[in-house]
Amino acid sequence: MKHRINYLGFLSLLALIAILGWRTGNKGLYGFFGFAYYLRYFWVIPDEFFRLNIQKAATFAFMSEMILLVPFMFVCTLFYDAASAVPISFALSFAVTVLAFSIALILLEWRERKGAAND
């Protein structure tokens, strides 16, 4: 049987950016350590149901980013100058998207495990 690579595990490589935060003293990069969670997906076999869960979580995350980007722009322009508001709002929408994807995927996997326990 051929072992298929689960490409979602490669998101864990983004955790290496946090090492740059340690080397440069930029504490804002420490949040990238959260991507180390995705290391576990190298040991998950990507079957059809797993791919469906990834698609559902990614769709939810994409829609949440599209919906929240504009309100973030307005709120950031209230608190920051116009030149700073745009990058801060994009960074906030990126952070919310990653968080929404991760939480949605965790919930979908939990629901799948709960359903498998009832069989």
Largest sheet: none
Helix content: 55-70%
Uncertain spans, ≥5 residues at pLDDT below 50?
A: none
Q: How many helices?
A: 3
Global structural class: mainly alpha
Q: Total domains, how many?
A: 2
Strand content: under 5%
The rounded Rg comes to: 17 Å
Q: List how many beta strands DSSP finds.
A: 0
Instruction: Give the N-terminus to C-terminus distance in angstroms.
Output: 26 Å
Question: Which descriptor suits the 3D outline?
Answer: flat
Mean of residue pLDDT? 90
Explain the layout of strands and helices.
Layout: H1 17-24, H2 48-79, H3 82-117
Give me some keywords for this one:
single chain, 119 residues, mainly alpha
Could you provide a short overview of the structure?
The chain is an all-alpha fold and about 120 residues long. The longest helix is centred in the C-terminal third of the chain and has 36 residues, at about 80-115.
